[in-house]
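Quick one before lunch.
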Amino acid sequence: MKKIDAHAHVGYFGSWCDVGVTAEEMVAAMRQYDIEKSIVSYPDNDVTLAALDGWPTQFCGLAWMDPNKGERAVADFAGLADRKAGVSGLKLHPLFNAYTANDPVVFPLIEEARKRGLPVFIHSGHPPFSLPWSIGQLAELYPDVRFVMIHMGHGHGVYIQAAIDVAAKHDNIWLENSGMPMHTKIREAYSRVGSDRIFWGSDAPFHHYAVEILRTEVSGLSESQLEDVFYNNVKKFMGW
Ligand SMILES: [Zn+2]
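Model of the zinc ion complex:
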């Protein structure tokens, strides 16, 4: 089944992570797993831009911004969005960059995304920074901005349930399922949050494509519903 990967990274993550993939390697893996396009980001945006320049049809880029950098982050984000073959959204990682998802330090970047009509992809699932409830509060403050809750709560059952509850309450939150261990929650999100509000993602190179694909395949959704999760929903969301 053809796919679009709603969440992946090109580049190397050191420290405890010690995982990495080059753009070339990812394009080869995408061919192997029938992935038409991958939405990628990396802390150094130049790595993302190089992937976009090299493989403009295979990659869509997000600007990974650190809100703690203040006005410079907003200006850099604007520059990345203005660039020809530029980024198509904002990526926030409250855990890696150490801020809570709904901290006022985030607001100027969200306002820039709103001005440009760009979606905001935000990592979820790690206390105290990226809890689903904080992301819900951010979405409530900005009802006209579209948020993607990456990992839909990640590895913690209570957070996974909260991700579904919070997204069900706010119609400007979409869920992305990479690294989320409970296959049953994919079907639950599809029916409770909305058939067009959940995306498949790999979070490569942190997770293996084969594992991430299988979990969605066994979630209990029908073939046509799987097509929504693997392909149609993110395509519609990104306006492709
Ligand atoms: Zn990730």
